[in-house]
């Protein structure tokens, strides 16, 4: 049995790039940064940042285009895929991406952070669903509900 699954929660490192294939399918890509924090044996706090490339197709691409921007918090679930191409210099280049199957938008911020309380908006969309055309429902969350 094989399993190819990636799940990340992080912040967008750039605005989503939206493209359309010749067949008319919408595709969006963006970067997500995730942080890993720990305390070393000397008691010093350490942090390591990882950067991930994310690709969304069709309905998910529509949602990302409408609601995501640099700095947005997002949960992405999908599969890893590595593609390769020959560069102009003749070298083979590789890029590993998360091909998203599900996505959940993080707390909606309006100029500031929702970490101080207040309302936040979330929406979960999967690749099997068409893109949502309604406004994102507003729900109440507490700081304990946020995993970062």
From TrEMBL:
Residues 102-148 are annotated as: Disordered. One of its GO terms (molecular function) is single-stranded DNA binding. Pfam families: SSB (PF00436). Keywords: DNA-binding. Residues 110-122 have a biased composition (Low complexity). GO terms for cellular component: nucleoid. InterPro entries: NA-bd_OB-fold, Primosome_PriB/ssb, ssDNA-bd. Residues 139-148 have a biased composition (Polar residues). GO terms for biological process: DNA replication. The keyword DNA-binding applies. Signal peptide: none annotated. NCBIfam families: ssb (TIGR00621). Homotetramer. This is Single-stranded DNA-binding protein.
């Amino acid at each position: 049995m094989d399993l190819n699954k990636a799940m990340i929660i992080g912040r967008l490192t750039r605005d989503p790039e939206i493209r359309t294939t010749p067949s008319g399918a919408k595709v969006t890509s963006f970067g997500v940064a995730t942080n890993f924090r720990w305390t070393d044996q000397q008691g010093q706090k350490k942090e390591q940042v990882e950067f991930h490339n994310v690709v969304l197709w069709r309905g998910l691409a529509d949602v990302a285009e409408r609601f995501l921007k640099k700095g947005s918090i997002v949960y992405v679930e999908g599969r890893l895929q590595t593609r390769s191409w020959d560069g102009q210099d003749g070298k083979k280049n590789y890029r590993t991406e998360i091909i998203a199957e599900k996505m959940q938008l993080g707390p909606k911020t309006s100029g500031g952070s929702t970490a101080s309380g207040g309302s936040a908006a979330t929406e979960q969309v999967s690749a099997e669903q068409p893109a949502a055309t309604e406004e994102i429902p507003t729900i109440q969350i507490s700081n304990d509900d946020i995993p970062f």
